[in-house]
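User: I'm preparing a small set of examples for a lab meeting where we compare how different chains pack in three dimensions. I only have the primary sequence for this one, and I'd like the structure in token form so I can line it up with the others. Please keep the answer compact; I'll paste it straight into my notes.
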Amino acid sequence: MTEGGYGPALLGCAVVVAALVIRTAVTETRRPGSARRDWAFLSTRQGWGTFLVTACVLAATTYATTGPTYLPWALLAALLITYVTSDKN
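Assistant: Understood. Below is the structure token output for the 89-residue chain.
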């Protein structure tokens, strides 16, 4: 994948993010206010801390093993890990 540069990695991440946005939109139409509750972790200190620590660890590991090509996937994985581990009241 190093020959293709960031293009394939960014395209793959864009597809996954688009699927998450569509899922959130469909859920929001069925249950108004659900999107705000689902993504509220982005406005908390604990959420940002979890994201930053996870992103740094994954980015360092990814960069050391494969170079910068897969860094978009590391950032997306950090976002998803933060989403899964967030405290949803």
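A couple of notes for your slides: The chain is about 75% helix and 0% strand. Residues 7-30 form the longest helix (24 residues).

User: Perfect, thanks.
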